[in-house]
């Protein structure tokens, strides 16, 4: 005799399996925010560590005790070294890292391209073109003067990209194409001016590589307002960018306004990337690699991605600056060079590993 299960038993078994699966999913979902919050706390601790290491390491290394005394005790022998040389460049690295990380995250969300970076919309090239023009034609010298021109150049290019890309009807593809075209034209202009004006080339070469070496208190103060406003705007855009990732129609059905979101995102990118590029030069790779790596940790949710980018990008930038100071003693390697040399192979390995994982 063959015994068979009744439909009721089979249905009850299936329902039990579904309930069991749902029961397993609920704790996992409950653990996900806790794991992300714990990871963000660990990233903050890593940031505090590299900030302190940046105060300790340089052409003349300080012990941790000397670095701490130089930070808090005005009578310490290391006070001048810490406050006049290392603290400004560390603070500038912190601000620039936050700006580049958030700008890269917003650009990748806006263009729906996980390999996009601030150079994709031509913002770096716009800032560079404005600074070259200021040096060559107006005799501007000093980073405080550069900041104003570079920010204006970045803002002008952002507005132009948005207009050429279709304005309120702009799409990710149009924005990327418009940015790529303007980026190529502006880079050609920068190269032409530098070749025709040797003095301009000499004054621009360290800025074009990307450096924190000439950071001053005035540079930090000049960049801070733009980066603070851009950071706040980028974080506020996290939820609308999540909606935009579903497509314009789905975003509208969720109460979002795609055109307004894109315009606000471009404003945030301009403030962040323009101020950072003006102060440090066009440092590449940070805005590309950090959001791409963070996405593997947090998923595509911008509410977690953007805070992670704001913390981990300065860890990368300040860490690269420390490496440049140690490797290049008694001189130093510019941070823009180190981010490419150190980050490039790691990023290729990361992309390759992800590709193998999805194969």
List the helices and strands and how they pair.
Layout: H1 7-56, H2 64-72, H3 79-111, H4 123-138, H5 143-164, H6 172-196, H7 198-209, H8 217-236, H9 238-244, H10 248-253, H11 258-280, H12 286-298, H13 302-327, H14 335-358
Helix pairs in contact: 1-2, 1-3, 1-13, 2-3, 3-8, 3-11, 3-12, 3-13, 4-5, 4-6, 4-7, 4-11, 5-6, 5-11, 6-7, 8-11, 9-13, 12-13, 13-14
Which terms summarize this structure?
single chain; 359 residues; mainly alpha; 14 helices; globular
Description:
The protein has 359 residues and is mainly α. Helix content is 80%, strand content 0%. The chain has 14 helices and no strands. The chain has helices at residues 7-56, 64-72, 79-111, 123-138, 143-164, 172-196, 198-209, 217-236, 238-244, 248-253, 258-280, 286-298, 302-327, 335-358. It starts with 6 loop residues before the first helix and ends with a helix. Residues 5-11 and 17-30 have low confidence and may be disordered.
Strand percent estimate:
under 5%
Helix vs. strand class: mainly alpha
Please report the number of helical segments: 14
Compute the average pLDDT. 80
What order do the SSEs take from the amino end to the carboxyl end, as H and E?
Answer: HHHHHHHHHHHHHH
Radius of gyration: 24 Å
Largest beta-sheet characterization: none
Q: Name the shape in a single word.
A: globular
What gap, in angstroms, lies between the N and C termini? 48 Å
Briefly summarize what is shown.
With 359 residues, the protein is an all-alpha fold.
